[in-house]
């Protein structure tokens, strides 16, 4: 009898670690984990962001557009800029008093800079750090681009975030006039002047609240990790490629509170795309009325593979495709599109003047 009790007690004692291993994750909250951002990068970023926050104006001129108002084109890349030739043609013939270009290139990747004569030749920012997909490093990279553009030129009024896989769908003239001059481009603006020029500029960024996997994205870092700063009802998702006003770009580099949440690593990597969560959530909390709720970059999510959108191949490129990609459910046409294979450059250049830039 005593022998049986001893065997049973010994068996239960052996089972305890197994039971604890299976039950503990559901009973006890997971231990806090450190950010994936190296502390040295954080320090460098904070110095840069503080300079941009204190040395930049958030004012976006209103009324009659001044010729010195500019669009800052911000490119995120971890490979060669294969579509530089088509972007060079996009900017060709337009004075640089209307635009600036900035490139955040991963310094740990061997990237060939476009040759002298390309608009991209001297646009790689010095503050660039390592980046990786589906990580908070992409948030940091975008904020570095904002900070650099804010400090570099007070005339930068709109900030367009793009990738190396993006192409233009319209001419530069169309893009510039739509953003600053057109009375019909953003009809959601309630206050156009009698001269047909918008006096209230908004950011073109998605603030999606009905995405089917929204809850799983929200708890990717842990069920309570985002609280209390980001309650679920304030959490939003959207494309990482958007056009933001100077005021909102400045608001982004000033943020410290939400960044502490979104830089935390995820427990569910399949639901963790921080760059698609941070910017929409920040805008939704800080100034939802100052955002249109939609983006100007077209992405085809049909046939998604491991979180990547459909990638266009050379055989897909045609005038019909360009016209189709421009179509939007909103009053505004799409300006840009992704994602294109590098081998699409030649067929795109062949229809650049006759289709893409003919609007």
Automatic annotation (TrEMBL):
Signal peptide extent: 1-21
Main location: membrane
InterPro entries hit by this protein: BC10-like, Glyco_trans_14
Entry's transmembrane regions: none
Subcellular compartments: Membrane
Membrane topology: Single-pass type II membrane protein
GO molecular function: glycosyltransferase activity
UniProt KW keywords: Glycoprotein, Glycosyltransferase, Membrane, Signal, Transferase
Superkingdom as given in the UniProt entry: Eukaryota
GO (cellular component) term, any one: membrane
Name the UniProt record assigns to this protein: Uncharacterized protein
Native organism: Brassica carinata (Ethiopian mustard)
